[in-house]
Amino acid sequence: MRIALAGLATSHPYTDARTLIRHADLVVWEQDPERLRRFADEHPRVKVAASLEEVLRGRLDGVVLTVPNPQVPQALAQVLETGAACFVNKPAAAGRAQLEQLDRLPIHDRVLSGSVLRFAPAFASRARVAREEVLAVRATVRHDVGIWATGYNAWQDTPGEGGGTMVTMGIHGVELLVALLGPVVRLAGAAGGTRHYRTLRSEDTGVMALRWDDGITGTVEILGVSESESYEVTLHKRDSTETILIESGDDPIKGLGYEGTIEAFLAMAGGAPSPVPWRETRAVLEVIVRARETS
């Protein structure tokens, strides 16, 4: 099996590669020399391509696409021309213009994108609910964004480019709730604030209010000032409350869903459809884009 890593714009493809290299021959391309050097130091035997066109050339079974958000639509269009399975590291769109460009692409059923958390064992084993019993849901995202306050990957922290904390961290909570309750959901409101990291371009805390078509309400809390990383889903019922906690544990690659995501991607590279229909991904992107627009 031959897999291309098209871009190393975030930390995710570095993590993805640690699992992929056990199953496939890899070829990598990255436009930033320093990021490419870091990758090559860890994986010296991986073939390096000089351009996106080169990394997509020849026989490919799959592509992991990780470029800055403004570049995603054009790069994904090139990937789609190969016919290979594609995993787009989150978020596939961080703003309205980007989302509208994605809407014009012929996205097929072997394209996967979104938060890896839906494949975390703690969540995947319990991601079935009797929705008639549910009154309301809440997702709490604890993921520190202090590294952006130093200027690192400034495009991620810029609302008009990578979406900032509301989008890049908020997608984790929205993804989990949509995975539980389905894609017929709309944003009812959103707000963000800066409580600690004053040099951020976006925010370090945020909240979204959601509503499903049958009246279930949801809340996504984003806490970008946190000493530990964890994600929690709470389901409120008439006479009980159920909580699902996702933590890294002793093996973060498995515990946070990276391993499960790559397993799904490898199945797609073998010919299987994406386990997450694009309609569902599109619903998640609509919520986070609207949250960015209104916060």
Automatic annotation (TrEMBL):
Residues 133-227 form the GFO/IDH/MocA-like oxidoreductase domain. It comes from the Bacteria. The keyword Oxidoreductase applies. InterPro entries: Gfo/Idh/MocA_oxidrdct_glycsds, GFO_IDH_MocA-like_dom, NAD(P)-bd_dom_sf. It holds the Pfam family GFO_IDH_MocA_C3. GO terms for molecular function: oxidoreductase activity. Keywords: Oxidoreductase. This is Predicted dehydrogenase.
